[in-house]
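Message: Just now I want nothing more than another pair of eyes on a protein record. I am handing you a single protein, as its sequence and its fold in token form. As I understand it, each token names a local backbone shape. Take your time, and here it is.
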Amino acid sequence: MAGWGILCDDAAVTRRAALPRFSRSRDRVLAGVAGGAADRWGVEPAVVRAAVAVTSLAGGLGVVAYGLGALVSVPPASGAARSSPRRDHRRELAIACAVAAVLVAARTVGLWPGDEVMLPAAAAAVGVAVTWIPLGTTTAADSRRHLARRALQLAAGIGLLIAGVWSLASRTGGLASVGASLGAIAVVVGGLAMFAAPALGRLLRTLDDERALRIREDERAAVAAHLHDSVLQSLVLIQRSDDPRRMATLARRQERELRSWLYGGAQPGDPATLHAAVAAMAAAVESDHDVRVEAVVVGDQPLDERARTLLAALRESIVNAARHAEVDRVDVFVEVDEAELTAYIRDTGRGFDPAAVPDDRRGISDSIVGRVARAGGSTVLQSTPGTGTEIELRLPRSRR
């Protein structure tokens, strides 16, 4: 029987015809339906938007089509890269012919608001589409010819748009009385909105792309900083150790910490306040690097996201001093006040020139300066060869 299928266990199932779905575009003015359909068909989004606008005047057909498109489309993926499908001008011409056929049918069945409205509106829609249709790529050899064609295209499109808006405004009181005619004002504003809609869509897409790129870069930097502070530091300690039992202990501890970070689960006995976390961190650094950490903490607060950020940057600063300063003591002072978290790290070791740090050494720039900056804080680093290093970390407290 048609519409039925048989599985291997003789169980009958019904085959359901799925509606063709497409993804909406981030190049959007309202919901991205027109942009998504344009990407699917390989045409300029301005052509689809102009078609929807002009058919909406014929009994609301464009509004109905837009609503159906919203039903059979899916939202764009948040992390998807901006697509640039290949445009086919023949398809744009086919859409124009289809719209013309729909308008003729609407005129026949009585969904026609009148020639005095539809003809100028169609001219304005064609002007918008012609203005925004790209001419394609060009080479340096024919750049002048390309610019001439583009200028002619803009002149024709803007001319059609102005003619259509002028004609519509003249039938609603005339442009001379546009300040006193609400209809003329609406027509002029509508024409400007149609012309600016593609630019607005591209602007919104650009903002979405920049926001997504910034989020991805922040996540990548956070992951890189954490792996540098945890896995890479543990590997360095394992390489420097000759005791198999100590190496196994370091590996097990790193495994627990990495699992806790990946899956977000707190281990039993983990510190719950900043004061306790600083004390535990100082003890761990002393055990790993055989250096004394003199830590003083004034004030306290729960271990929230800002406090964890400060603690991670503080740990990396102390570890750097323990590994490179050639000292047996590092002084740490942490203060919690009503507005911000402050930490000072000081050693009297060999010091270094911050400007001479190679670009491939990302410990300070990513794990300290970059990490604090991403959380809205600031870092001040002062170091001179032979005089030691001082680091000041400041982070605003989280608002409750």
The chain has two domains: 18-212, 271-400. The beta strands are 4-6, 12-14, 22-23, 73-74, 292-298, 329-336, 340-347, 378-384, 388-396. Residues 24 and 334 are 50 Å apart (CA to CA).
